[in-house]
Amino acid sequence: MKKSIIVLLLFFVAFGQAQDKKWTLKECVQYALENNISIKQSELDVELSEVERLTAKGNFIPSLNAGVGVSENTGLSFNPITNNAQTTTFLSASGNINVGYTLFDGLRNFRQLQRADISRLASQYRLDKMKDDISLFVANGYLTVILNKANLEVLKSQNEVTKEQIKRTQELVDAGSLPRGDLLEIKATDASEQQQIINAENNVQISLISLAQLLLIKDYETFDIEDEGYNIVDGGVAGKDVSEIIAAAKENRSEIKIAEQNVELAEIDLKIAKGVNWPTLSAFFGYNTRYANTTSFIQQVDPNNPTVTQQIGTVEATGQTVVGTFPNTFPVEVAADPLVDQLYQNDGIGYGLQLNIPILNGFNTKGNIQRSRVSLERSKFQLEQAELDLESTVYQAYVDAKGALKSYEAAQLALESQELAYNYAKERYDVGLTNAFDFSQSKLRYDNSRIDLNRAKYDYIFKLKVLELYFGIPAIELKF
């Protein structure tokens, strides 16, 4: 009984801990990298490139094929052993082994292996880029949840102040120190804030669901994140010159590496297309044998009358008959030789070299070479465009980060000013020197300034992390 109670208590403790789990940003990013469908598809592309590389390696290995055939013939058929036509039923079998090896094919096999290596590297770069993109999506979604939660806390804390003001205003109205309109104004402010809180709660829930969907987590109701301890952490990238960040991005970013690998692939494809113009030299070796269980006939000399005299012609001048003595034979049916003996007696081998020289194939080779040249030029333009796009993107990210920092600093100053104005308005309202409408407007400006500060803060954090990512810091090593 005690054991059952202990197990039950442990279950409830574990269940409660699972319900209370809050995901950190690092956990979310790591989970997304392990479970995201797009990343899994990119990993499959890497596996396919490994298969392509294995196939390219296989081109350097001789081909080996073996064949076995068994058949039964009834009626008039040619005996595969004697090659004579006979009417009977017999079982025959044959087997062969063939080996082929390409000695020279214009270095196409070597180029195919080079292409497979480059293709594998390009697939890995595409996977790395996909991971970076997913990490940014997760970080953006995560910071959106934190921003919405921070805004919700601002609205709740300020609503608490409003409720305190309602109590105080009610006392002053009851004492006749303030008109009833001030109380109604404060209550209207409270109602408006309650509506804003409901909207903010909806925003938090929606952003949590969006993040959970991005992570492929279906338990929306209990999913939550750790919303504390995330501040502005500048690793020094924001202070670097934009040219230094652009140079680092060109060296480290997968976009450029992918475009560079595409150029190399196009160069290899051109060499492969040109290799078709070269002769192909291959070697071959073949072994074959056969067996049949059919009987055959041999001529046997009659022991009782071993010879026979027969006329073989006449002498034209004299008309004299010419005779000859021949063995007196008669046909005797004999059984088929044993299987092993036939396989040994009927085997044969063939070997040699084969040279194929391309002369004319309807300009297909020339067309393929021309297409490969065009593809090479296109890939070079794409590399150049990728460098320009990356430079523009990094520069834009740099400007965005600088602008977000200025916006954050301006939001801090605005909050300080609005806080002073709010405290001053509160003091005047408490002593009856201002009305409820003016006080509520001052409070509204203060609330908005706190929300604006939250928005500016997390916008700067995200844009700073984007800049660090372009500088070459891995997504899972970004610090918040």
Question: Can you tell me about this structure?
Answer:
This is TolC family protein. The chain has 480 residues and is of the alpha+beta class. It folds into 2 domains: 30-61 and 105-278 and 358-477, Outer membrane efflux proteins (OEP) (Up-down Bundle); 296-334, no CATH class. Helix content is 62%, strand content 18%. The protein has 10 helices and 8 strands. The chain has helices spanning 2-20, 25-35, 37-58, 108-174, 180-215, 242-252, 254-275, 339-345, 364-430, 436-471, and strands at 63-78, 85-104, 280-292, 296-301, 307-314, 321-327, 329-334, 348-356. The strands form 3 sheets. It has a 4-stranded antiparallel β-sheet. Strands 4-7 form a two-stranded antiparallel ribbon. The chain is elongated and about 170 Å long. Residues 1-19 have low confidence and may be disordered.
CATH topology of the largest domain: Outer membrane efflux proteins (OEP)
The coarse overall form would be: elongated
Helix content: 55-70%
End-to-end Cα distance, whole Å, is 49 Å
CATH architecture of the largest domain: Up-down Bundle
Number of helices: 10
CATH class (first level) name of the largest domain: Mainly Alpha
Which stretches are low in confidence, meaning pLDDT under 50 for 5 or more residues running? 1-19
Count of individual domains:
2
Please identify which CATH superfamily of the largest domain we are dealing with: Outer membrane efflux proteins (OEP)
- Give a count of the beta strands, DSSP E runs of length 2 or more: 8
The helix/strand order is HHHEEHHHHEEEEEHEHH
Major sheet description: 4 strands, antiparallel
Q: Kindly name the structural category.
A: alpha+beta
Q: Estimate what percentage of residues fall within beta strands.
A: 15-25%
Order of strands, main sheet, comes to: 1-2-3-8
Computed CA radius of gyration, to the nearest angstrom: 45 Å
Mean pLDDT metric: 83
